[in-house]
Amino acid sequence: MNAEQKYLDEIALRLGAESEGLFLTWKGRVALYAILEAMEIGEGDEVILPAFTCVVVPNAILYRGAIPIYVDIEKETLNASYESIVASVSENTKAIICQNTFGLSSDLDRIADFARKKGIYTIEDCTHGFGGTFHGEPNGSFCDAAFYSTQWNKPFSTGIGGIGWVRNDDVQKRLNVSSYADPSWKSRTSLSLLLFVRKNMLRGWNYWPAVKLYRWLSKNNLVLGSSSGSEISDVQKPNGYELRSSQVQYKAGVKALEGLEAVLKRRKQNAMLLTRALADLGKYHVSEELHADHAFLKYPILVKDKSKIESLAVQNRLELGDWFNSQLHPVQSDLIRWGLNVEMYPISKHIATHILNIPCDTVNVDRYVRFLEQFNEELI
User: Fold this and answer.
1) Which residue segments constitute the domains of the chain, with CATH numbers given?
2) pTM beyond cutoff 0.90
3) Peptide bond into 138 cis (omega under 30)
């Protein structure tokens, strides 16, 4: 068995899927693009998505010549509600993207049922949700297709990488990832080096300086990154976008999946401790009612001043995430270029202004609890 098939089989086992419905790409956004392509989404078609996401999601839509239609999110779930999605459907709606934010699925059964009756495709954005469940079924099981990310800080990591799962037979027949190019030798070598650095050199105390340096280098195309400069400054598809996966990712993925179950268990346990601590402090937290369907890639907290809390975290040698630092992470201004008027989505604007997140796979959750208690006046 070759490395690619072994990786696909390991993925299929955890998703309860047939490996024939799965495919691998250089990045998760490329899997989304391939799905949109197979759904024949193009000029003038509308795709509904939350106004609180990563910019690469509307990019994939725009690269197809389609129109992103944003909807606001709920503060409690950080996902778009069923009602807001239904209200945004028009005669031009071709697909709905159901985002899984930090590991919490959208209201998938109702959304998928509604879309099916309307003849609208559904795509589950599981970039945060591999290994999690919704109503006891693996994330990605409810829609016509799903895409996953295996980039840095995702449920399991291959450095960068994407997985697609197409469950609709007609869409699967039109899928044409085999026509995509292979990543270059330079890209594969760079990825191997970055994986080594991540494993052996990145620690809590140097997390923020390293992340900021990496983002700057990536933005300026000086190092292989999650998003190249053009992806966060323009809406034109960059050259070399449609790429297949590589041997580097197959091997890293098989290795990373070996410990996934233990990590998922730890995330859920840590999330409960954080929820109870924040509830005791009277601060924003994830309701215990949502825990059963939440994989908790990250635990969201709302703070009054993000820069201040980030600085305090560095001083205390604690890693914090800043997803999503804007309504179209990581773009900080001129979101109208992606068709998003920030004032039209007040909840997502408020959340993006105040959100930080705690890594739920930490073995030092007690330190985070003490940090929250010490600086509780800075929390919302």
Assistant:
1) 3-179 (3.40.640.10), 185-239 (no CATH), 260-378 (3.90.1150.10)
2) yes
3) no
